[in-house]
């Protein structure tokens, strides 16, 4: 049974939507990793100051 133009368009739309969702997911993962890294980098000096650990930094 041959696909109609509408069916092909719907299939392409679904594929494009899936690609877009994948890109969004990768970007969200990248942002979470960056945010975690930022928190770690900023948190270490604060923690050492707060705990009063001399010479750690």
Can you give a write-up of this model?
By secondary structure, this protein is mainly alpha-helical. 82% of the residues lie in helices and 0% in strands. The protein has one helix and no strands. The chain has one helix spanning 5-51. The termini are far apart.
Q: Spell out the helices and strands N to C.
A: H
Low-confidence stretches: none
| Main pleated-sheet profile | none
Helix content: over 70%
* Strand content bin: under 5%
Short description:
With 57 residues, the protein is an all-alpha fold. Helix content is 82%, strand content 0%.
Topology diagram in text:
Blueprint: H1 5-51
Q: Which features does this protein show?
A:
57 residues, mainly alpha, single chain
């Amino acid at each position: 049974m041959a696909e109609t133009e509408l069916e092909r368009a719907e299939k392409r739309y679904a594929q494009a939507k899936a690609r877009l969702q994948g890109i969004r997911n990768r970007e969200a993962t990248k942002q979470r990793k960056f945010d975690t890294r930022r928190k770690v980098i900023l948190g270490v000096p604060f923690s050492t100051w707060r705990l009063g650990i001399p010479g750690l930094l």
